[in-house]
Each structure stands twice: as C-alpha cells, then as structure tokens.
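Chapter review: from sequence to fold.
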Amino acid sequence: MEELDLAFVNASPELEKRFLSGIAAGRYTLLLGAGASRDSFNRFGDLPLTADLQEELSKVTEVSPGKYSLQRLYASLTETERQKHIRDRFSDCTPGETVRAITSYYWKRIFTLNIDDTLNAAYTTHSMQSPKFLHFSDPYEDFQAKSDVPVINLHGSVRRHEDGYVFSYEEYARITKGQNPWMVILSNSIRSEPVIISGASLEESDIEYYLSYRSETTAREDLPPSIYVSNEVNRLSESLCKEHNLIQFSGYSSDFFNYVRVKLPNPPRIEQDSNSGVTGILPNAVSRHARMNFDADFELVPHLEEINTSSNKFYYGQPPTWKDLAAKLDVSRIESGRLLDIAPQEGETARQLNVLLGETGSGKTTILKRVAFNLAERGVYHVLWTSELARLSRTTADTLDMIDGPVALIVDNLADHALAVNDVLSLSEKEDIFIVGAERTYREEYLARIFGSGGFSRTNVDALSALDVKRLIDILVDRALIGSHRALMGQRAFLKSLRNDPIAIASCRVINDFRPLDRIIDDLRSVSSHEEILTYVMAGIAEHCHKSGIRAEILSRTVNGMTLDAMIGGRSPLHLKEIDAVHMSGYLGAENSTLAEHIIARINLNDPDLVFSAFVSLSDGLAPYVNRGAIRARTPEARLAGRLFDFDDIVKKFLGSRTEEFYDRSHKVWRWNSRFWEQYALMKLERALRCFDDKSRDEFLAEALQRARHSVAIERHPFGLNTLAKVLMTFVSVGHRDSSIHFLEASRHIKDAIEIESKYRRSSQHPYSTLILGALDLIDQGSSIPESEVKPIRDLTDYAIDRWKFDAAMRDKGKRLLSLI
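The token string follows.
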C-alpha cells in the first residue's frame, strides 16, 4: 500500500484527493496509447506496440527497420498484407486487466490512438457506461446523460477498416487542416480540462500535437489535476510535465488502473449519485436510458423546511438555490401569488400552459423558482424544474405519462424549449399536468407562433412597487450588504429611484453604494484586463443567446486557464458562474446575467471591435460541435449557434452595421448550415425593405431570394421554407411584375412547411400568417388569387382563424381574406 501512495511524482495528498474525486464524478477525459493494450492479446499473441509493428512491417516490405514511417509502410502493403498484418493482427482481442478496469469507471470522453478492438470487447461485458464507438471521420456527437460515453478512435479501428487509418504526423496534419471535429475537440479539452494520458509517450508526434495546446497558463487549477502515466521518471519527464501542467504517475498503464481500483474499488453509480432526484418518482418500467435522459433534463424540486443560510451569491446576481428559497432570501412578489392561485387544486386535471413575461432583470427566474418551491410545499404535485441544458426529447412525453400523480413542469427561458414543450403537449396523454414558463417580453411573439396567441395565459412582471423596494432594502440590511447610508436612512428619493430599475439592477446598485449603473460598469472595466473583458463578453453573449451559456473548453480556445480560474473563483472583478452544475458541469455564464447585458451594451458603444471579436470567436469555437445530428439532438451548442446567427433578435442588435461582415466572416465554417443561410437571407431582405430606389431594392431582394433558396436546397425545414415564402411574398408586396408567379411558389412552400410540421404533430402560426398576408397583398396589388389556389387557401385560413381565435390580428385579416376570395 505504501508503494501505491508514492505512485504520483511530486504530488500532494490534496492533489491525490482531488484526482480521486474527479474519477468518482466522471470528470476525466482519457487519452490512450498502445501501452493501455499492453496486457491484451488475441489468437496471434500479445498486441504489438508501435515500434514492434513498425519493425514487423519493415520486414514484410523488405526495407531497413526504422527508416520509413508507419504510414509509408502501411501505404505500401497489398490488400492481402493489410488484412493479415493489420486487420487480423488487431481484431478479436481479449482485453487485459487494464482495459477491463477502464470500463469500471465513468469518463467524460475516451480518445484512443489504438486501432485494436480491446475496448469494444471490454465494453460488451460489465461496464458502468454504454459506449458509442466513433471513427475520427465521424461527425461530432454530444451525449446528454453520463450513462453514455463516446469512444473515439483517433487513428481508426479494425472494426472500421474501410474508413482508413492514421499512422503518421503528416497524415495528422492533412486531417487537422480540414478542421476534423474530434481532433479539434480533443485539442480544446486538453487545454484546460482534466485529462489522463496513459500508454503513450509525450514524444510521440500526435501526443506532441495535442499537448502543444496545453501549458502552465492554459490549465485550470480549479479542476482535478491532469495525469501523465509513464514508468520513465527523469529530468525530461519532469520538465515536460511542468511545461504542460501535468502530474506524473510512475508506472505502466496496468499499474495506474490497479492503483485506481485499490483507491476507489466501488465508484458510485450515477443512479445512486444523481442530485436531481427525479429517478425516484419514475416507475421501474422506465428503461435505464430513458431514466438517465429524464434525469439529465429535470430536477425534482425538494420540499425543504425553513432554514438559515449564509450564502450571498443570490444577491450578487446568481439564481436562487432551493436552500436560498427555504431561507426566504428572495423578495416576496405579487406575481408568485398570481401564478400559484391559478394552479389546479388537488383533484383537478385541467392541462394548462402559463407564461410569466418580463424584461431582462425583472426577477422572472426568482419568481418562477418561488412558484416551483411553493408548489412542492403543497405536496399535490411532483414539481419538475427544467434544466438549462435540457433537450426534452420526444420520449419525454412517454416518460411523463408513466409518472403516477399530477406533475407541475416549470420551464425557465421557455422560448428555448418551446418546440419541445409543444411536442409534450401534443404527444402526452397525461391530463394532470400544469406547465409554467418564463420568458423575456420581446420573445412573446415567438411563443405565439409556436403555441398560438391564445394557447397560453400570460402573467406580466410589474415594475417594482414601493413595498417591493422596501422589502429589498430590509433584506439587504439584514444581510449586512447595504453600501449606502441613504438606504439605511430610508431616504425617499433614493428608494423612489430604485423603482425605475429591474430588481437585479436595483440590488446591484444598493450593494454598490447607490452609484449609477454606468459608473459601476466603468469601474469594473477599468480594473479588468482585455482578456477578462473579452471572456466576459463571450460568456454574456452566449448566455443571452441560450441560457446554457458556453462550454469552458470553447472559451479556453480564446483565453488562458488562469483567467478562467480567476473569473470563476471570484478573484476577478468580472465574475463567471457554472451553469446548472446539478446536471452537467463545464458550462459557464456571467454571474449576474442582467448586469452582463448592460456591460456588453456599454462596451459595444466604446469598443465595438471587441464585441465583434467575441461573436467571431463564438462562431469559430462552436463550429466543430454543430452538425445536422447535433441539431436534431437539440444539443446546447446547436441551439446556441441557432440563436447566435439570429438576425432580428441577436446579430442586428449587437453588431449593427457590421452584421453582413459577421455573416461573411462565418461563411467558411457554416456554409453547410441551412439556418445560417436563412438568417443571411433575412438580413438581405431587411436591407431591401429599407431601400428607397427600386433598383437597389430589387438587387437586395434577388440576393435574399438566392440565399433563401440555398437554405432550402440544403435542408427542407419548415423554418427555411417559410423564410423562402416570406421573401417571395415580399416581391408580391412591392408589386413586382412577376408577383403572381412568386405568390404561387410561396404558397407551395408554405403548404410543404405545414405538411412537414403536421408529421410531427406541430402547428405553428408563422406559415399561416405569411400566406394570409401575402394573399391580401396580391389582391391589394390588383391581382386575383389563381383559381387552383382558392379552395386550399380558404381551408388553411379557416383553420388558422379557428386555431388562433384569440389572435385579433390573425382573425381580422383572415376574415377579410375570406370575404375577398
């Protein structure tokens, strides 16, 4: 046992403790070399190491040993020789103790430089995770639940023989030039995330390539230490470990995993270690996979007795924890009572969707969490809080149906989950479900498109009342957080001025000596470095686009680990927080998201180049993580990218005159993406509508049409089809000579969009309104609706009037159209 305790070189007991905690929590990425398979074998005997294989192939090709690279030797083999010396030599392996030990623990990702199938064989028996084996040429996949683990064969695999291998640095260079997503993602994560390098030499060309991204400054000290496993302990290994901020384990891979087994013989299963609590309300009939996905999406709101707590993070802008609410740290708001009053009582089964609408910083999240907490106290509902990282897959409705008893589903940032919630309402047969969501006011129109303007009830967050302000001051006095004597004295002008601020800003101003918000922001900027400001702006923009924020490993492409350490640990004036650590660690946002929006707006006035750089860095950093599969899986990165390119709500607002430059700058890595071209088309469409001369307008309209057509050519998605129809209908509205032709084409695309949505039991308002408005424009221009289109348009208009009967504009325009055709 003493030898085991001395296995780490120059490591303190505290580092060892952090290492074992990281292993138990599944925080580590594994990077495996040939040494990890050293004790595995197949019918031909022990598996050869790299040097052994190179010597063997040199004999086969009759060249001098050591003269040619493995890649060159492999390329000269005949197909029969490849089958014998590569495919057969590394197939049908019996995994040794080392590889079998790997399957006994949770890993974030496993990257292997080995082409053998030892891991495939090991994971077919007892294992903690379900593996997904991926070839380096495969697109990126994200895994929602910790029960799944990606195993990426960076050099290829004998089980994917036809897809090729990588055996040389030159081949690596060729592939990495093409922005291979898995190689980029390993490069990102190895910069700062916890990694274990086992069975490989730091002098191997591919290991050198990945470690070139990691240094003493990029590595984060707030995370578990990264480990290099090698039996060679000398000045060179010590120097390399110091250079890359690694802790060396002295021994072979077999020694290392034996050490882990001794120190952590029975790692907790994720089901036992789940912090969300939702698995406890699911019946046994729910499959493990569905159970883990549900656990990744929801947190069961606890019923806690009133407690005392010393945490002040809530007052500095972080969302309240359930303990904060049990301690009554929040200000009582009238909106909480309104939402609680409309909640169905015990025995009532009415399905409801209720939306809390308010401006940024108005306290929506806190109000929503208070409603969830108080509903849990009543004991009538299973109250489920939706994770910021939730995807709400189409199996969510099936799982909800299996829960015994009423369910209250609480969804912050509802627009991000609107399509999924609409699926739940369409697919779930459960009647005793009460849904409450919160969203920023400006996104109400989007919600109306998805649910219909009459498809949900609204509760608006009022401005702070005098009583709200007094309660806020009383709480901050009680917590000794008051920075202004005027607040302590209760001066009327001071208290009255706070009523003009959202509660998040009011609290910030009180804590900061009642200074004007602009002064607070300027002071924060003056004591922050350029790198800190850029990091903060990137995280703030990401969180504004999608509340999951941004992966730390993506931020680490732009900033070093020391900066991230300081900003997460509160040692920087601009603080970052970890978002939704209950469900998945590694996503970051601004500590006070409301303050961040004001800071970004202020920076954009004085240094727009920095904000533009932040957009470009986010665009480039997200690119390897997003593909069609990720979009279908609704991964956080895919949803963030979708919002990052949103012309109306995001790009135009932040970048103004540099909007087109941003789209042009992002074109190279996003040209495959239909959403990118759709938003590019909307940008050109707006420019057309702002033109006063017909020639320039028609040129921009033609460019908008070209980009909209390209979006649909890439993917026939309802969004793209509707955008194409919208552009075509604009030709109609301006009286283009081919208006009737454009109208017929637009009508066809709208019907296609509606048909595609109906296959998924969805019905959004947007295509119907585009059709009705376009038809009215055509008539107002003096043309008539083609006879073949009259009945289909009447039928669709009748449906829209009935479906969205509470939408006065839709109803009135629809009835006018029916009266004209």
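Two observations follow directly from the output. The longest strand covers residues 433-440. The radius of gyration is 29 Å.
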